Amino acid sequence: MDVEWSGNWVAGRLGIELVGDGELRELLGLALRRNPKRAHLLVSNVLGKHVPQRPSVVHGVGYELGERVRNLLGEAEAGRAVVLGYAETATGLGHAVADGLGVAPYLHSTRRPVAGVAQAGGFEEAHSHATSHLLLPEDPDLLNAAADGSPLVLVDDEFSTGNTVLNTIRALHARYPRDRYVIVALVDMRSEADQGRLTEFAEEIGARVDLVVRARGTVRLPDGVLEKGRSLVARHDAQDAGLAGDAAGEPPAPSRPVPVRVALDWPAGVPDGGRHGFTPVHRAALEAALPAMGARIADALGDARRVLVLGFEELMYAPLRLATALEESTTAEVRYSTTTRSPVLAVDDPGYAIRSRLVFPAHDDPADGPGDRYAYNVAGAGFDAVVAVVDSTADTPALHAPDGLLARLAGHTDQVLLAVVPSYVPPAASDRGVPTSSDRAVPTASHRQEAAMLPEPLRGPAFSSYAADDVGWLLQDLSDTPLEAPTEEREEAIQSGGAHYAESLPVEYQPSPQYQELFKTALDTSAARIARAVGTVTETVLAERGPRPVLVSLARAGTPVGVLMRRWAQRRHGLDLPHYAVSIVRGRGIDANALRWLAAHHDPADVVFVDGWTGKGAITRELAVALEEFDGFNPEIAVLADPGGCVRTYGTREDFLIPSACLNSTVSGLISRTVLRSDLVGPHDFHGAKFYRELADSDVSGPFLDTVAARFDEVADAVDAEAKELLAADRAPTWEGWAAVERISEEYGIHDVNLVKPGVGETTRVLLRRVPWKILAERGAGADLDHVRLLAEQRGVPVEEVEGLPYTCVGLIHPKYTRGATGADGTAVTAR
């Protein structure tokens, strides 16, 4: 059956003719630009920009052109060649050409300035809606042919007038002269008048210039076509607006899918693309990692049968290769395309190349300011899943906003996945730009670039047993580093001043069968109460810090709470709240690099810090002091339980058993408490933690979350009432807990508030990982203290019932300790 050519609609109405090689119409369709400089757009069917295509076809076309260039140059010259692609349309094509050459480094022009990276050149694109191109190679000698006479291979999607490519060569030749250039394009569409310019140009600069193309032809334009095109676009604007599919600013309906983040585990040190150069070494590392990344995406897609992998403007190659890997990992039908800056008319007609469009705001803080972006031929195309791939610079609140790309996609597919590739900034630029500890974090584009040297958050299942979209850990993985020390040795070092508590880890507590059963009982009896507190604190946060807060849990006690708050927002409001976990260390402050990463990817004003409970409020005070060095962050903490009266945002002020306090890593995603030690954590590192994979058989992190979340619906009405009451109440901190701790410290002759740990959660921690002296329990306290009594019995610690405690219990740390522990320099310390 004959398929209608996707240029018929434009050709018939404007009198445009496309003539040339036999496969030209298979390669190209026609559409109308919204551009005063050119009426028509040649729409490639194999480029992967406007028309979804099989990723193997897109990569294969470029790869085959690269092989032809290698044959043209010969092995010796091909081994010295450098490939240069054009932003935004040809970045992926140029990369594929470099793959076909096999041994060539690759660079593409960019419209994204990067602070600290020297500009090696630039040029203007006359007919484009966005003209300025920058060349920002990490290696300043990449374009310099003086040393080895390397040929330069320039890749664009089409060679039309030749002006853009020839102007680029002219500018580069004046700065980096060489003997040979090769121009590569999918199609050569020069008019007869332009045919002879290439030879003349080569003679002008005194170099050889070759042309390698897939097909040849030309476009014949009648007189007045520009005016006719403008008029035709104007007549179809109303229809085009309807095809956008979403009213501007309209939030997604509750039935629309909530985007799910999939962790790629992108290989360390491999750039996201060729903006600063991409070497054969990078290529080899990426090729080795692609099968596993493709399999992870395939697993996340489940039963999806027709899948689109959607790249992002200049980020074409990374999504393309993820798509080719996905093709090999699934039996589903896979297509690939990318979003674009180009404004094009959409007409739902089989004889027109752009059948539909989605419109959404730019989400990467572009240097030329805000504006609309587009995804073509996605709406109405029948995809039951879309995998949106962006770089971390573009993983911003605007991406997740109600009118953002993810919400637009959710209106046209059953499943939306988000995969984020870490944005690469050359280390030399980062070294010049990374702020010191006294600098203030500012959420600007340049700050994103400064923080780009930091790695992307760790995610499960590679790090933690939580799902990848539950939480991103802004930590470094120290799983292979010996950090555990006997409890008594740690206690001596901490109290003698020889080591800080965050410089080592206690030996991970292994619960007895009796204790595990106690945990299950406690979870069953308290799940509804936990669910109410989760709902109440989440609704309070949404009301006061909405509409889309960024949850940042204080690792690790805050992490299960942050996951539950995120799930409440998903269940009750259809919101996909970002959630991260960061380290804060008493006496050392919060992880400054984690704050820089957050400021680079989100508005600090949207960040809401989350913890499990308050004791005497030490961490509350610690956070407030630490954030004085960083602009824009709100130091208030949202907690599940605030028995100490230390915060304004809480689910309850009762001191009751929170089952996640009963255990250590096995209820917190198998993650240790955080570690800060100078020999392990450098100036540009996140704080560290361990992933106890070996404890998977004892892990109850998932059951804890699922059990509490299963009670959300039944407590919804109570939560609405409690949240409304709290929002109208005076919630000013009373600091009642701090006063009680000071009193107990003096009453029991301790004289150190750091050795007094109030509340059920803190008392449990004392019993699990410190050297407890005694437990003070409120007289008549019931089942909330069953696990405390059991732990105290196992460790031989007396439980003393007292009157008048503002808490259910208080743990007192023993003032005696033994020798040896790990100090700041990694060596053993002894008692002084």
TrEMBL record:
Residues 272-407 form the TRSP domain. Pfam families: PELOTA_1, PRTase_2, StiP, TRSP. Residues 27-217 form the Orotate phosphoribosyltransferase-like domain. Residues 464-708 form the Cysteine protease StiP N-terminal domain. CDD domains: PRTases_typeI (cd06223). The keyword Glycosyltransferase applies. Keywords: Glycosyltransferase, Transferase. GO terms for molecular function: glycosyltransferase activity. Residues 735-814 form the PELOTA RNA-binding domain. Signal peptide: none annotated. SUPFAM superfamilies: PRTase-like. This is Phosphoribosyltransferase. It comes from Streptomyces atroolivaceus.
